[in-house]
Amino acid sequence: MIKIIAIEREFGCTASAIAETLAKRLGWKVLDQTLTEEVARIGQVARAVVEQREECMDPLLYRLTKVFRFGSHERSLPVSGQEVFDADRVVELVQQVVEEAAATGNCVIVGRGSAYFLRKRTDTLRVFLFAPREFKLRFLQTQTQNEARARELLDSVDRNRRAFVKHYFAVEWPYRPAYHAMLNSALGDDFILATIQNLMDALNKKEASL
After folding, report:
1. CB 99 within 8 Å of CB 114
2. Residue 205: inside a domain, yes or no?
3. What CATH number did the domain enclosing 55 receive?
4. Across the strands, what pairs with 125?
């Protein structure tokens, strides 16, 4: 039975609002900003520190320095404290929080690599949301009240996500085999929500018939 929904998304696709509504309809919890807060709590850093490093890579100079210093760039390097709270540490803690939430179930998780961390679980429905550029730009303009800033975010955030997925999961973003479906948010929240519910019902029905 499906007990986890992982939603990956392009920036500006209204994924957070969709996830919130979906979770309310299902009576599940949603891990979006709360995931960031939990990582900050465990890592004993400010939330803003986590937000700066989520779904991003550290600057090239920092990564090169780390390789030379430790002889490796692997996440298994021992780290502690805010002074070394880098992207590797964020990924480590995000994976921990995501897997703990998945073990409990009944949750909708937004981004942060969750679709990749949970890609082998048969109880997880993985969906990718995308939208035309103009749709995303209109949404971001309403959020920022600044067209130039909206365009900057639209270009930079997904570029960072693409590099992040390539670096940590060794695949091109979006990695289509990771998802059960890729849906266009411009078709409307009602359509997206109904489609996800139909996918859940179909997967549950399929499992029940086995």
Report:
1. no
2. no
3. 3.40.50.300
4. 5
